[in-house]
Amino acid sequence: MLIGAHVSPAGGPANAVQRGVERGCHSIQIFNQNPRAWKPRVYSDEEVADFHEAMKASEVDAVLIHAVYLLNCASEDEEIRDKSLTALTAALQAGDALGAVGVVLHPGSALKGTVEPAIERAAETIAEALKESENCALHLEDTAGAGGTLGRSFEELASLIEQAGGGKRLAVCLDSCHLYASGYDIATAEGLGAVIDEFDSIVGLDRLASLHFNDSATPLGSNVDRHAPPGEGHLGREGCAAFLSEPRFEGMPVILEGPGIDGKGIVPEDIALAHQMRDEGRAAR
Asked: What is the pLDDT at residue 147?
């Protein structure tokens, strides 16, 4: 299990590697462009070379790119879908250049519309972005279920993958907070095991490629995406330890997004705590 954090790539992606090293990360996640702007960021050849050199000199083994939250591949607004396609394609191309494990994407939202047509629109946009990039995988992230967000159930994730073509580059990123908020009870090792069995039967474990580790500030089935510091939310110490020690997650990048123990970003103590909770979970199995 490659425990790491979402870090800033300010000043170039090589700096993100250094920020990961400073926190004791074995994986990192970055935005490839300003998360508040539509303009894609294209890395220069020098920036890409510096990134690879930094990775070689570090203990960071994996990088994920998180597509910015502005994207809505399911929008009924054609202009928004076009902008989403451009940004998603740029993220996948950045992933190709950096050798990323994958680009993590919130699949989109039907907003006040009907879910099935929204899934069709999102899948079409996703398929087009994959055609316009080469190798980088796309990890569809499960959602907490507020409003018309897509991916709030394993069935929706499976439908998105199927309608987007079902290719090998399509994968899933499971977020512990989102799972719990959308009604999947993973607060114990037994509950988590049953949920992952269900995921396997509906989506397939071969599609699971990355993880977000966040505690939930809201109760089971709340459909509210609000993170709590690890071990201090409704998952609690036991649920966090169970998530971090699930045997079927071995070898995957696990990203802490925050808040950390200081209520802000992830610091070295958060990474150390995650390792401690992983060991506790293993000992309890």
From this structure: 80
* The token pair that represents 191 in the structure block: 């509950």
212 in active site = yes
- The DSSP line for 27-93 is EEEEESS-TT--------HHHHHHHHHHHHTSS--EEEEEPPTT--TT-S-HHHHHHHHHHHHHHHH
**Whole-model pTM over 0.85:** yes
Is 106 assigned a catalytic role?
yes
Of residues 252, 247, 245, the one with CA closest to residue 282: 245
Q: Given this model, what pLDDT does residue 268 score?
A: 98
CA–CA separation, 149 and 115 (whole Å): 9
Residue in 46, 69, 197, 198 annotated catalytic:
69
State the catalytic residue, choosing from 47, 141, 142, 270.
141
Cβ–Cβ < 8 Å for 135, 103: no
Catalytic residue status for 26: no
**Average of per-residue pLDDT across 252-257:** 98
Q: Which of these is catalytic: 23, 81, 139, 227?
A: 227
Say whether pLDDT at 112 is over 90: no
184 belongs to the catalytic site? no
Q: Does residue 76 contact residue 31 with C-beta atoms inside 8 Å? A: no
Residue 252: closest CA among 58, 93, 102: 102
Catalytic (active site) residue 197 = no
Instruction: Tell whether the model's pLDDT for residue 240 goes beyond 90.
Output: yes
Annotated active-site residue in 178, 184, 215, 278: 178
In angstroms, the CA 124 to CA 140 distance is 14
Alpha-carbon distances, residue 64 vs 67, 138, 141, 192, 245 (angstroms): 10, 10, 12, 24, 21
